[in-house]
Amino acid sequence: MYALVLIAFLAEPATPTGKGIVPDGAKLIKLFTRTAKIEGGLTEGPAVAPDASIYFSDIPLGADKGQILRHDPKTGKTELWIDDSRKSNGLKFDAEGRLVACEGSDQGGRAVVRYDLKTKTRTVVADNYKGKKFNAPNDLVIDAKGRIFFTDPRYLGDEPRELEHRAVYRIDTDGTVTEVTHEVEKPNGIGLSPDGKTLYLADHNNGTDKIMPGVKSKPGAMKIYAFPLDEKGNVGPRKTLYDFGTQAGCDGMCIDSKGHIYLTSRGMKRPGVLVLTPEGKEAAFIPTGPADQDPSKEPVGLPSNVTFGIGTESKTLFITVDKSLYRIDLAVEGHHPARGTR
């Protein structure tokens, strides 16, 4: 009995740290765990709607259809919103209250799309660059001008590759698609500073795709970059803000009103939300799983993405972890670039 109790104790995440960001006694609260009969994958892409509800993706593997779910913080209920998301991943709401989604590969839509919340009508915003199909749109951020910046790596699927690079793109309000940078091995999470002058980018090269037939892919960069961003939406020289080394790095990210960067760190030695200052220094850490996990076993507690709520939930961080959705109440408000406000 003692051994079982000890094992259960060790499996619990450690206490969060970060004075001024994480209040004393703050804890992760589980809101939802997958119940659909779909296989593999993970929950992803939490995004806050104008009514303060949280929409998020549930991404299975292979032929199973992905879903978009909606969590209502007022009632605590989570319900199915779309039963075929075309493998949606990152989600964001624009200033007009429309849901914008990155649809991935592995039998997904491989496009950036927009939903009308009332009718659930899906409209393709962009699915190619210069006539060549995207690899697998992954995550996005929308700025105050309505421009969509999104990442296009690929982690799964057998779809043939059409584009030379795994790149970051910008979709202007007139629909024009521009490559922002391909100075990255495998772009994933993406964010904007509150003043809109810095673009943050996660390089998460886990080396597990089949995008180059006949080439054995090896793990590579696990870093966070900062690019200066001008008024036209173009980037300047890249700066490495943080390096995870040989551990798995960041998946998704978000920013708070003070400019802190919240990174979903997926390394098995220390899984959780790593909070950095704009200079790249650790300011807080919210564990989501046990530390120093056995690499021979399936990992648990790996976070994939984060967002802040709005209104009475403006200091609440929502986190997708494994196949679940969590929340934790913090001491700082989030920033939502598309609205230009907290």
Q: By CATH's scheme, which homologous superfamily applies?
A: TolB, C-terminal domain
Strand order of the largest sheet: 1-26-25-24
Structural class: mainly beta
Approximate strand percentage? 35-45%
Any low-confidence stretches, pLDDT <50, length ≥5?
A: 1-10
Please state the oligomeric state of the protein chains shown: single chain
Straight-line distance between termini = 48 Å
Record field, number of beta strands: 26
Question: How would you describe this structure to a colleague?
Answer:
The chain is mainly beta and 342 residues long. It is built from one helix and 26 strands. The protein has one helix at 2-10; strands at residues 29-33, 42-48, 54-59, 67-72, 77-82, 88-93, 99-103, 111-115, 122-126, 128-129, 132-133, 140-142, 148-152, 167-171, 177-181, 187-192, 198-204, 222-228, 239-243, 250-255, 261-265, 272-276, 282-287, 303-308, 316-321, 324-329. The longest helix has 9 residues, at 2-10.
